[in-house]
Amino acid sequence: MGMILVVEDTPSEMELMSHYLRESGYSVIGALSAKEAIAKAVEQKPDAIVTDVVMPGMSGFELCRSLKKHPATEKVPIVICSSKNLEIDRLWGMKQGADAYITKPYTREQLVRAVKSVTG
User: Is it the case that residue 1 has pLDDT exceeding 80?
Assistant: First the structure.
């Protein structure tokens, strides 16, 4: 179906997200930090990126901005998956270049629907 880059610094969350996506037919690449995510996104050209917001070093919002500015990744759709569930957080995420925003805790259906909505 497609390759999804999952950016999540919590191992249990990474495992859950990867499991849901693989069950739905996607192949998954993982990155534990935004810096690692940028390198993998440029190198492996995923079909979409799912990222957490609160991470050490660089936030998911900053990651969004960096990816959208980089010629190799500017067209890659981004789904933000965050525990920040206020409308202002969602709006800010979209303003940073995210194509979809889901909040934790999420269901398998919510995650897969968000990824499908951005990958077509």
Answer: no
